[in-house]
Design a protein that fits this description.
Layout (H helix, E strand, L loop, with lengths): L26 E4 L4 E6 L10 H13 L8 E6 L10 H8 L4 H20 L4 E5 L2 E3 L1 H8 L2 E4 L4 E3 L14 H9 L1 H10 L2 E2 L1 H7 L4 E2 L5 H13 L3 H13 L5 H15 L3 H11 L10
Parallel strand pairs: 2-3, 3-4, 4-6, 5-7, 6-9
Antiparallel strand pairs: 1-2, 7-8
Helix pairs in contact: 1-3, 3-4, 5-6, 9-10
């Protein structure tokens, strides 16, 4: 969870601005409202991930913990597909020749990407069209909000390549989103979840026409970016931390979190706007 660090704060230089970030293995776009868009851009192969793109995505989301200029992130893919997962030739082939220590480094790296997405303070919104499979499905699952289209097919197909369904946190995250029985079926069989199933089961927040999907996701991102950034960051933090708490612990943790938020300037801004019968303009601090 982060707090806005102003230009006059002596710690400001420690916070790495991401507005001018230059991505190498995917597209990065940023607008001045604080919305950043990450686009997986190998459409000719349905946007597969490589060793390099895994690592760069991990490092980007880790770095976002210190980027006070980025308020919301939209994650999407080019060419009518989200991601087909790990590239068969660039990743799976080389993995069959690696030693156990090397394989463990790889599986930890992929898991670190999910952890980085879950631990960055910004809400991450997935605009998920077409193919969403393997590691691509796990990136979608790691998003805070997910929007799909009627053509979206989401497959956790790890068992289809002779592996366990337990990959990148799937056995922890997926049951919490769609329920234990449904998650078990998808992880054992590797079959594709249809868009309508994903909507009915709570995987998708909504479905939209594929041509409008990114625009809708960015519009929602802009709304969140205009909101209380510190409050959003605290919300994401508590959603993450309370999985491992009892109800009593969660209630106490939320009491502390809310008391902290009541010290933020945005809380006073909201009150003053309400008293003046105006819409609040949040500053993120």
């Amino acid at each position: 969870m982060k707090h806005y660090i102003g230009a006059t704060n002596p710690m400001h230089a420690q916070f790495d601005a991401r507005a001018s970030y230059q991505a190498r293995h995917f597209k990065w776009d940023y607008d001045t409202t604080g919305v950043a868009t990450v686009t997986l851009n190998r459409p000719e192969r349905k946007n597969p991930l490589t060793f390099d793109s895994y690592a760069e995505l991990r490092d980007l989301f880790n770095g976002l913990r210190y980027a006070t200029d980025v308020k919301v992130v939209v994650l999407t893919g080019e060419g009518g597909n989200f991601s087909s997962g790990g590239d068969v030739h660039d990743i799976i082939g080389p993995l069959t020749k690696m030693s156990m220590p090397e394989l463990l480094e790889f599986t930890r790296m992929t898991g670190d990407l999910v952890k980085a997405m879950r631990n960055c303070p910004q809400p991450v919104i997935g605009a998920i069209d077409g193919t969403c499979a393997g590691a691509g499905a796990m990136m979608a699952l790691a998003c805070d909000l997910r929007y799909g289209s009627e053509t979206t097919r989401t497959a956790f197909l790890f068992t289809r390549v002779g592996l366990a369904g337990a990959d990148m946190g799937a056995c922890a995250l997926l049951p919490r989103v769609i329920g234990q029985g449904r998650a078990s079926e998808l992880l054992f069989t590797g079959r594709a979840m249809t868009a309508q199933e994903g909507l009915a089961w709570g995987f998708f927040n909504a479905l939209h026409d594929g041509g409008e999907l990114l625009v809708v996701a960015q519009s929602i991102a802009a709304e969140l970016a205009a909101g209380p950034t510190f409050g959003h960051a605290m919300t994401k933090t508590m959603l993450q931390q309370e999985w491992a708490m009892t109800i009593e612990q969660a209630i106490e943790a939320e009491a502390q979190a809310q008391a902290i938020c009541m010290q933020a300037h945005d809380f006073r801004r909201a009150y003053e706007a309400f008293a003046a019968r105006q819409k609040p303009v949040f500053g993120g601090d």
